[in-house]
Amino acid sequence: MGFIDTVKARAKANKKSIVLPEGMDVRIYEAASKCIAEDIADITIIASPAEVEANNKGFDISKATIIDPATSEKTQSYAEKLAELRKSKGMTVEQAKELLLSDYMYFACMMVKLGDADGVVSGACHSTANTLRPSLQILKTKPGSKLVSAFFLMVVPNCEYGANGTFIFADSGLEQNPDPEKLAAIAASSAESFQLLVQEEPIVAMLSHSTKGSAKHADVDKVLEATAIAKEQYPQYKIDGELQLDAAIVPSVGESKAPGSPVAGKANVLVFPDLDAGNIGYKLTQRLAKAEAYGPVTQGIAKPINDLSRGCVADDIVGVVAITAVQCTAE
């Protein structure tokens, strides 16, 4: 059984309620029909009747819940609660209601905030900022989390590295240029996520263009400092750096370049020094190695709220719904 099949089975065994707030996109209906057919989650789509009519041709979503904020009996109470949450910013009930009607992500986050749903998957036709802004305004960060970051769960076919070709690449979707403290926090959050989703021991490589002093540069110093912080603050995880990619995942190269390292040649969690490297890395792997790429999956928000690549297809959405449902089981 492949990685995503295992995740789907776990989601099916403990069904959660997942909201898809992009009812204006045909891919959402295709994905919803597949989620329902595979019984991996209870699906709610936020959409107007016109949006449903325009996009639902040929898909069976009879078992999905469709909510139109313009007619929902919950809209007024959500508006009152949202205004209360944002009163320090001067938000009125009328302004809150307008947000709920014009931006379905706010409605979805209020559903999760008030216990009417467990998680949200969005981003098929909206930016990461549009997905995360309502999440952070309404749900805030997870207790104990230092920041919100994002990763891609990569499944590389016919690959002997990582966990049978399964890796986490972080941060590949959100944190532009993390300082050493943030990079260490990303390493710890990613290790925790790997443990939850892959159910194997995380082995974390702090990546660089240098391995163990082979190059001198301020960028290398950042990774070295982050590694030291991570080892001190999160001793429960195997973390090492700085490591070049080949030294991190190829046993023979790891033994040659970083002998004695508990991580070199064995890494399955790859922490990139900045968003440029992480984003380029995951897209190269996805396109050239034909890898499955699930994400960007967020970590550090109080409830599971996940983003999508705007280039996603329906099967990608189904995979992220399953991942989100499994994240909900850890709440």
Walkthrough of the structure:
- The chain folds into 2 domains: 3-140 and 303-329, Rossmann fold (3-Layer(aba) Sandwich); 149-288, Rossmann fold (3-Layer(aba) Sandwich).
- The strands form 2 sheets. Strands 8-7-9-6-5-10 form a 6-stranded mixed beta sheet, with helices on both faces. The protein has a 5-stranded parallel beta sheet with strand order 3-2-1-4-11, with helices on both faces.
- Helix 1 (3-13) packs across helix 13, helix 2 packs across helix 13 (314-329) and helix 4 (75-85) packs across helix 5.
- It has helices at 3-13, 26-38, 49-55, 75-85, 93-102, 104-113, 128-138, 180-198, 218-233, 245-249, 251-257, 275-288, 314-329; strands at residues 17-20, 42-46, 65-67, 119-121, 149-155, 166-170, 203-207, 238-243, 269-271, 292-299, 305-306.
- It is of the alpha/beta class and 331 residues long.
- The radius of gyration is 20 Å and the shape is globular.
Secondary structure: elements and pairs:
Layout: H1 3-13, E1 17-20, H2 26-38, E2 42-46, H3 49-55, E3 65-67, H4 75-85, H5 93-102, H6 104-113, E4 119-121, H7 128-138, E5 149-155, E6 166-170, H8 180-198, E7 203-207, H9 218-233, E8 238-243, H10 245-249, H11 251-257, E9 269-271, H12 275-288, E10 292-299, E11 305-306, H13 314-329
Helix pairs in contact: 1-13, 2-13, 4-5, 5-6, 6-7, 8-9
One letter per element, helices H and strands E, the order comes to HEHEHEHHHEHEEHEHEHHEHEEH
| Outline | globular
Q: How confident overall, as mean pLDDT?
A: 93
Distance between the termini: 26 Å
Strand content: 15-25%
Radius of gyration from the alpha-carbon trace, in angstroms: 20 Å
Sheet of most strands: 6 strands, mixed
Per the CATH scheme, the topology name of the largest domain is Rossmann fold
Kindly provide the name of the CATH class of the largest domain. Alpha Beta
Identify the strand order in the major beta sheet.
Answer: 8-7-9-6-5-10
Structural class: alpha/beta
